[in-house]
Amino acid sequence: MSDKKGDFAFKSKDTMGMYHEMTYGGALSFLRRKYSQDLNGVDVAVSGVPFDNAVTYRPGCRLGPRAIRQASVQLAELDAFPFGFNLFENLSIVDYGDCHLDPHHPETIVKAIQDHASKIISQDTKMLTFGGDHFVSYPLIKSHAEKYGPVTLIQFDAHCDTWEDTGGMDHGSMFARAVSEGVIDASKSTQIGLRTYNNSDHGFEILTSPWVHRNGIDAALEVIKNRAGDSPVYISWDIDGFDPSYAPGTGTPVVGGLATWQGLELLRGLEGLDLIGMDIVEVSPAYDVSEITAIAAATIGHDFLCLLAKQKGAKGNIIGRI
Which domains are seen in the chain, by residue range? Predict the structure, then answer.
């Protein structure tokens, strides 16, 4: 660990390495990474999309990116558990800041998000994005599909988000639109944790929350990974995939969801897939309790980065029974 102290996000000249910060002070960025839009040699750009105009119940997830960054400070100074390596010695990560949006001109939102993502992806840098409501996944996935072709979606959610597409901005119908446009390959995609009904699966494999509870992590991973194969995989994680006892800070909570330990085991079990990007959405800090929702979101983001580090060959020193 370097002897540099304080405000790493502004002072650092490097995108690698770990620096000491007070967990209760200093410049906030995700995992205390350097703020930069220079992506030369950068593996992953973390950014926020503070938009919640498409919600159907409780608003407030426009404040999600800020809350997740704040919650990440606890994860910034330790070797990654349970991976057993220093994430920041194995992956070059920057905090790219937030996508600038004009809420007074909603007709500009989709293009603004898509342009934001395309600028990053075009430089061969992967994205970890924090919403915002779940509609933001639509332009993000469109940008990824421009580079990789139709993507396999692995979606953690309480809701299907494949309701009838009316052509507007709705956080409950954008994946139906994406499938109809050929942006998502539903035949290889899986939705996990659902506990609300639609009148069609739209070609997705659906592993409901009760199914996961009854059949377990290994059975779920077998379905997900066999279906995805070697296709390019985009993960979209609606925080309401978790039970509200684990993640109360969200706009449309539904009881009976996944526990955080189940979510983490499922995510870590995706190792070996061709992971191309991820978003974490619907964190609404106004409804949170003791930051537990934001901490869950930050941990998911952290572990996704660890999977990318393992894709690059990172190896850990595992201690204890994992």
Answer: 8-311 (3.40.800.10)
